[in-house]
Structures
1.
Amino acid sequence: MTFLKASSLASPHLLGIENLTPSEINLLLDLSEHYVDMNRSGSKKTDLLRGRTIINVFFESSTRTRTSFELAGKRLGADVINISPEVSAVRKGETLLDTALTLNAMHADLLVVRHPESGAVQLIAEKVSCSVVNGGDGAHEHPTQALLDALAIRRRVGRLHGLVVAISGDIAHSRVARSNMLLLKTMGADVRVIAPPTLIPADIDRYGVEVFHDLAEGVRDADIVMMLRLQQERMRGSFIPSTSEYFHFFGLDRAKLANAKPDALIMHPGPMNRGVEIDSDVADDINRSLIQEQVEMGVAVRMACLDLLTRDLSNNTGDEA
């Protein structure tokens, strides 16, 4: 297997899409293409990261993200350790900063961190001397999800520039929506968001996207329709009358999808709530759904991120406390 002889990212961390340049995004996507090929080959493992230690620190439960990061690290030959909230010392009263300092003292090469509070991963990155990848922080960002979504689109359509991408669902509480809006706009796509007014973030204007409150109208002539689940765990108060009414107006079914382009592709980052934001008939359409490809692309993208962030470890000089 021949890998790209590319430079590393400008930052020793991957904390969000906002600070990535178009060339860095293309670098990550191009390298991910190589890992897609490797993962589909007979030999799925390399010793590229042999001797490196990666710690996955997930303060929130996760299936796809944590599993794919673990698989990515192991396929690259790294030693991978998983820490979950059930066994974390945080449950015993340890502060986030003390946890960061403890992990730093173990001399890991890279931390993958998911946390329910926005900005928590940035705080950890400021206190450790290794690289840090944001596995999702509150309603802030989820950069590797946006990268894998972009890879799935680019592989199927051949480009990102000029595509009309409609993102529908709980935009207000979704880190996936924020990272996707940032990445897709950076790469030249036209982005729309669709949700009831209660689920549109107050700062939506900063993203440069079109806002719709009608799903059928919002997906009109769209190339990509990306559905998001209701983030009930982040809601404080009543944002929708009921899930059945929400599906009636904002659930993607054949009738509403008919307004998009005839070959429009369907995406969902998971987990899906069938019958709430998406109908099973649409989600399982083998010709138009990219949902399983998104899962596959997740491993390749996370391999590319781990690869690039560990290429120049000697230059990773984060601020130690």
2.
Amino acid sequence: MALKLAISGKGGVGKTTISAILARLLAASGKRVFAIDADPVSNLASALGVSEDPPITPIIELRDIIAERTGAQPGQYGGMFKLNPEVGDLPDRFSRERDGVRLLVTGTIDEGGSGCFCPESAVLRSLMQHLILYRDDVVVMDMEAGVEHIGRATTRAVDRLIIVVDPGGRSQVAARRIRRLAMDIGIKRVSIVANRVRGPEDRALVEKNLADFDFLGFLPIDEEIADADREGRRPYDALDKIPGDFRSIADRLLTE
């Protein structure tokens, strides 16, 4: 079974950019990669350089598909609908590809905690299970900021949950909460990527505050990434320009 990754963290720590660069590096290694945008504020297409013309409609907003597969109209809470709808064709049908990475925008339910008991959640749950359990593709999931997705148990079968933090204390508090909830649903492998590390002092601070975590890597403040974000383009359009810090993380994911 291919590598399945979920990437989470407090909003604004750079998890979408990291998800995109890791997906590109994994694809460049010869893997077939699905990058899943499960954040309600969808930015993974831009980070991957995937065209949004025509606009990408998240799976969660495909009302006709949801009604067809579940036998119930979206927005119906309770009632009768298929709990395990057929979704096997959706990843290839609704994804867009660039440089070996297929982007699938799922969206997310506008509910906290465990999500809603509704046709939309049935489709999303079945889709994530299909991608993680039954597809022999590498999956990189850019999850919504915070911890709400953990309660929906969509990441239960992932190989590793990567929590992105920065030197700020709030992101580190969020990391502990995310890990606690992840372990509650059976995710045993949780790692940290520290982003926007300005130097040895920042690194030492993060290592001290999160000493009981596994660290996958440390990424410095990067002007190219900041410029790309401002300009609405993907950073490091040329793959060989991606810094070695990212490559070390990708190599470790592949070898472990």
3.
Amino acid sequence: MQETKSPVLELKNIMKAYDANVALKDAGLTVYPGEVHALMGANGAGKSTMIKIIAGVHQPNSGEILLRGEPVTFRGPKDALRKGVAVVYQELSLVPHLTVSENIALSADDVGRGGLYNWAESDRIAAEALRYLGDAGRDIGVRDVVGTLRADQMQMIEIARAIGQNASIILLDEPTSSLNFEETENLFSVIRELARQGIAIIFVSHRMNEIREISDRISILRDGLLVVDGRPMDSISDDDIVTEMLGEKLESARYEKPSAEDLDSRPKLLTFGFEGGIEDYTIHEGEIVGLAGLAGSGRSSVLRAIWGGSVRGDMHFEYMGSRFVPTRPGKSLRHRMAYVGEDRSISGLFFGQPVLETIIMGHRNLSGRRFVKDRHEEKLMRRVVDEVQIKLPSEDCSPSALSGGNQQKLLFGRWILDDARLVLLDEPTRGVDVRTKEEIYQRIRAMASEGRAGVLMVSSELNELVLLCDKVIIMRDGKGENVLRGDEITEENMMRYIARAEGTAANT
């Protein structure tokens, strides 16, 4: 980004309130063509509101939006897109049963005129948009069905759709939250290429290392106010970024891991293995075990198989000393297992229902209650909310009213009522800020050290596995390939073993 350029997008003195809740007080943002501009803030700082204003979903109560120096009002997402502003949300908006061509070009004016769909024009728009992505788009065919593609390929299609609509500004909201490090590097290559071609990228993320790697400048929101206004990344430290986000210095906890001898002396909770695998793997009481690997390595499918959400005939299990065949989640629940999936929207949060339903449903099923006792359940809900420190606008609100960090804490909180023996975690800190991440780390450690639960977790953030895990299993082609223990658990070692995993299967 060159300082002689004029801003392509400016938000000035933006105020947005929802009834009595003021989400943005005096916020702003200045973005230049060809730059990658980081937007950061703690959960509840106002980022989601600003994103929706940029996307045209909401209009500010006051303030000004300038597009290429001219005042503008976005009357809706389609209006913003027509004017060159596209948003790729954390929860992808693709239609899985449609083709890549349809997903990219469906909203284009030229493909649906006269009541007939113009496949040739749709394919042309899609192919041209995919070519913009370079190597990242070469393995994607315009007639591929989107639901059959990997998570990183779906992310690329979202970006291609923005390109196909001639967007000059693309906002990426937590774009790496479901990607591993290799897929993230592919995405970053695309982002750099788009910036070289003059497209402005607004990059929203909680991952400090990624912000540092990809961004030219950074703006930070705190409590609805702009507290850092477009500072160059090389002029601000990571500690200063965290302090600006939180309004105070964050003291990170340090965890004392049990010794390998101590862990091996404890009772075995779960032993699992793979047909034709090298060895079986054991989780002891109070042990935290990580699963690391590329997309398609089978990390998440191991958790789903143990939970009973999917069947893997190539795996065998022994749980608490007996052979165990996980056939459905209800069975695993009765065996005091807990599961936090990678996608909050489909793996446990009951949107449209009060928060109480998310918290209490597992307990209801486990206790076998035939009748709902309102006062008893409300007491349990308040216990969870207080213990996990979930911020609720009201006790009868839906999970949809909560920030991403509070939604994630809600998924953890639902399991403290019944003292789970085995906790299965898939990307447990996806899309949460640094403070919430620290709270979740403490919760995981407490489950293991105080509750003596075994923990099996998947994380694409290798530093997370280093911080928390007593053992890390490297996955390849759906099977465990290597095990790292103790001092062997470093980011460099994991990357070295993971990099060998070529030709992985397409099931994450």
